[in-house]
Specification:
39% of the residues are buried. The protein is α/β, with parallel strands linked by helices. It has 3 domains: 112 residues, Probable tRNA modification gtpase trme, domain 1 (Gyrase A, domain 2); 126 residues, Four Helix Bundle (Hemerythrin (Met), subunit A); 139 residues, Rossmann fold, CATH 3.40.50. The chain is built from 14 helices and 11 strands. The radius of gyration is 29 Å and the shape is flat. A hairpin with a 2-residue loop joins strand 8 and strand 9.
């Protein structure tokens, strides 16, 4: 493996910047560019020098001997003063050394995967943690990064290997009397894994929403105050407001942190019959996005027939409470009346749904688990046909095991790696 280096902290001026070196020559090279050998205890202050021996900066140097490091290789990190000049000078000094090369995006993490320090699900969790904007996203990513999905997959895999082994023993001794009927234990093992997989699969959609954000659509007729309400919730002028109906033609999106959950508010075109071609496109798009949203806020007069059917969790409010005598069940984006109650309602609904979340978070996870479920269902059908079909059942179980191994990246995921690691920065 090449020895690689990169800036591991953010670009730009900072109090401290971290430059990381990883690979077989990390310790040797670091000893050569420091004014004294690396500290025996793995940390200490050293002066970093260029090829001519001129000092570049005094840095806190941390060294990690393989395999006790993030990548599983020898790693050295320099915590230098975070000016752009210092960082550039140290990176230039490292670039001048022929035994080193700049890391590719995500290469440190990729080496951690290849060296068995992380499984693929943990790599995805790390990417989610880096991108996390809300508390719910952070917690979800931490569970994956800590190996929660890998531990589940290993437990399922162990049970399926046990089940397949029992069946194969029966096949091997088909001409002899096996003292114990293994079928009940095999069925119990398969059923247990199947139930766990179904529960996890059903929670992926909610987990994806936590990772990518829930969508809440504001719906109503033209000029009922949808854009004003959006601006009030966003705390800024995100949408144009006017007294003229049909001002909003496209779907306006505002992303926000709502009680620790990532939420995207959608301001949609007013729903009405129109001969304006462009407005009609906006209305059609509004209906489509509202159908796909996790929750809808309807602004409508009492007794008004809604253009769309309300779903569980949706809320209906009378618009422009500041202009009404009867303000019960009304809201005003202009004065803020009813905003707190609306936020509380939306938060409660989305938090309740979030309790159904599993550990798996991505469509890839769901696909692998569904493949395993299909194989398990086929195995159980074959088992009921009798012992002469046990070899087919054993192969179905092995197929389920392969799906679980793909879930955590043990086999058959090489085509995914470039796409996954391209989202990482150079220093990760």
């Amino acid at each position: 493996m090449d020895t690689i280096f990169a800036l591991a902290s953010a670009q730009g001026k900072a109090g401290v910047s971290v430059i990381r070196i990883s690979g077989p020559l990390a310790l040797e090279t670091s000893n050569q560019i420091c004014d004294h050998p690396l500290p025996a205890k793995g940390r200490g202050l050293r002066v970093i020098q260029d090829a001519q021996g001129d000092p570049l900066d005094e840095a806190l140097v941390l060294s990690f001997a393989a395999p006790a490091s993030f990548t599983g290789e020898n790693i050295v990190e320099f915590q230098v003063h975070g000016s752009t000049a210092v960082v550039s000078a140290v990176l230039d000094a490292l670039s001048a050394r022929p035994e080193l090369r700049i890391a590719e995006p995500g290469e440190f993490t990729r080496r951690a995967l290849e060296n068995g320090k992380l499984d693929l699900a943990q790599v995805e969790g790390l990417a989610d943690l880096i991108d996390a904007e809300t508390e719910a996203q952070r917690k979800q990513a931490q569970v994956i990064l800590a190996g929660g999905l890998g531990q589940l997959a290993e437990r399922w895999r162990t049970d399926l290997i046990r089940a397949a082994s029992l069946i194969e023993v029966t096949i091997d001794f088909a001409d002899e009397d096996v003292p114990v009927d293994v079928t009940p234990e095999v069925v119990e093992l398969l059923s247990g894994v199947e139930n766990d997989l179904r529960r996890e699969t059903s929670g992926v959609q909610i987990a994806e929403r936590i990772r990518e954000g829930f969508e809440v659509a504001i719906i109503g007729a033209p000029n009922v105050g949808k854009s004003t309400l959006l601006n009030a919730l966003a705390g800024r002028e995100a949408a144009i407001t006017s007294e003229y109906a049909g001002t909003t033609r496209d779907v306006i999106e505002v992303r926000m942190d709502l009680a620790g959950l990532p939420v995207t508010l959608l301001d949609t075109a007013g729903l009405r019959e129109t001969e304006d071609h462009v407005e009609g496109i906006g209305i059609a798009l509004a209906r489509k996005r509202a159908d796909q949203a996790d929750l809808r806020v309807f602004l409508a007069e009492p007794g008004e027939i809604l253009d769309m059917e309300m779903q569980p969790g949706d809320i209906r409010l009378a618009p422009k409470a500041d202009k009404r005598e009867d303000q019960a069940g009304a809201i005003s984006g202009k004065t803020g009346q009813g905003l707190d109650q609306l936020v509380e309602h939306v938060s409660t609904v989305l938090k309740t749904r979030s309790t159904q979340v599993g550990i798996a978070t991505r469509a890839r996870h769901r696909d692998m688990m569904e493949n395993a479920l299909t194989s398990l269902a086929e195995a159980q059908v074959v088992l009921r046909r009798g012992s002469e079909f046990y070899d087919i059942a054993a192969e179905d179980m092995r197929s389920a095991i392969r799906s679980l191994e793909m879930l955590v990246g043990r086999v058959g995921v090489e085509n995914l790696l470039d796409e996954i690691f391209s989202s990482f920065c150079l220093g990760k």
